[in-house]
Amino acid sequence: MTLTVCVGSSGSGKTTFLEDVYKSHKCIYIRQYHIMRPYITVSKIPNFDATRLPYWDIYVKEEKAEKIQVGGTMAGEFTAGLSGGQRKLLLFELICQRTASQSELLVVLDEPFAGVTDDFVPFIVERLNELRQKHNVLLVTNDHVTTLTTMADNKITVSAIDRSTVRINDREKVDREKAIMALSVGDAYSYQATNADLKFFYDVEIHSSSALIGIACFTIFCYSLFIATFWDSEESSQALVLVAGGIISYFCVNPYLLSLVDWRNAQNEEAEALVHASKTMNKTLKTLLTFSLILIISLIEFGVVNATIDGLSEIKFWVAMLFDSASLTFTLICLGLYTNMPFQAVQVVGSLPFLLMIFLSTTFSPGSGVPVLKELRYLYARFYFWCMVPAVQDTMENCPSDNVILVYVILSGCLGVFIFLVVMAILKIKRGIQKDKAETKRAGLRDDEFTELQVELYGTKALHRLMHMNSSLSLKKPASNGTIKEAIGKSVGRAFILILLWCKRLTVSSAFKHAAPSRVTGDAQGADKVFSLDVTLRSVLLSKRSAKMRCLMVGSSLIALLVDNAAALNIVLPGGTGSIGSRLSAKLMDHTVTILTRNAFLAAAPNRVTEQFGWVGSSFLRKNPHVNLRDWDGGDLLDIVGQDWIGWQEEALLDADVVVHFVGGFTEQRTMACERLVRESMRVNKDALQITVNPLDEEIGVISVGAVTQKKERIRACEEMVKMNCVHSMCLRIECYREDEGCEKIKSTIVDWAKRQGNK
Known about the structure:
This is ABC transporter. The chain is of the alpha/beta class.
């Protein structure tokens, strides 16, 4: 998969470019300043392991791990919790865990290093490398540009001078819309909601909601004053008491309704970062919760009104109170949750029913008003409610009969919802027409340049693996293309390739004393089939040359591979399941690579099971059939978990030409593992080249915080141990942010040493 970096000067439109890619594809998206609900308790996020966060041990020591919240400001209320940089790291870890079980997704990141101190940069770099192994990553950056451009496969440059075009790698003046379309490639993320997601909503929005507690306290306070003020009112004051009760109910729930705008915005951005299963589900649950809140307050209003005045105890009066309140509040719910209107617009438009009710419902002016205009009173539930109140019903004009009046109350109470649904339907039809026009325009951009651009960005094989994509490449080549000669050429080419692979296997078998250890994910025959398919696709099926040229390609490949096999090496990577180890393994495709790991079964699993042991994954092994996994004791004999670790020395080291040390981290295990490898190599195969790979001294404190002096001493001890005891040794230092360059350095060291040995 690929990592694409978008660069440009401030104000050149980098973030806007990413926004347009997101709108085009609806991919996974982390914004520069991403919004989350600040009152979310981090440990309660479903299907998320917070212990993998680099700062989590601080809260464990402080005994705050179960209580720490996301933190931030929402609806004008500040909640203490994580810092902005910690929230950014939380989102990174979250999408890494969420997407670990899937592949071929598009992940878009805006300023991933913004707000993050340098000591956490290695964490982000590590997560980026994890993401790019299975997904395509597109990001914008102004920080650590050198680090990211070095890691990147593609570079897009945007300019404030010409916003209609961009530069992609060496391609100048690429149409901006075409570039956005070419980048908008990836399968859809799928996540099935579970009971854990429902429990998460309950815990966050109900059980520990300070907003609900605030509404409860305010409601109790207001209605206590109401009872004290209107106690023992006369029946002739029914209208006055009902008006007061309705106003109190409205203002008790109004702050909660206005906070729905910020809640909706947070939900949308949380969905972009895969925080929850579905924003549609959460909006539905929030709607039901808000309806329940209005229902409860109306019951309180009904009880308090009847406690202060007689004559309104029938259930029909409670129904009228409920839908009178609904006519004033339902519009705020619809606009707050189901539109993209800003807060001020929602506040103004959503409050119109309350304002117009005062003027048009004749609540405060029974029988008055200008003809025609006063007929608008029939649209308001309050008018029909007043027709039911004994104290004022005689002053109301043209009230419906008693047997249907409650139906009119309910229908007029929901009128705002009906109008909202009609408007949304019209807007949806309009958006559909605009989308069709846009798609017609986009179809005109899918030309040869567009195809070449996608191939350059993602590669042909990656595009063919996608199930859902915005690509002009055909997943199946038409049978009518090509002549009979070309078909024969393809068949001959495939036959030559099979012969080539058979010869390669014979050569490899004779070059070493015994075959490489069996793969965890399948036998050697299965690995050869995968390798045969890979070579065939690369050498023949993806070639655009003539049949004659294909045959020439096959012949030259045969010669090249046979010559190459003569120099093939057996390379062992203890602890090579990390980012650098797996990347180096992929680069050593002309050699046999054995990775020593504590648990080969877990390391080869489709998804990562635990952080305790290394993992490369079955997908990586399928793509790299020259890589094998082997259980070993980890060098310390203290925590052995693999089922078949005994005899790893004879199977892995006996025929090893090169041993590259990646094991141990910066703990004491690093020294123990190095000593174990040196001892066993000297016992079974002292001629192997021993290579230690370590970071630069000045970068150790950045990679692993604390005890820097002790860690430097351990690294030097390992290097001295190899130099003093091994016949052939190399001690390499690489820059931690330049993994590709580091891998190339290790590879060139191996190749140069092999050439020198061959000359001898």
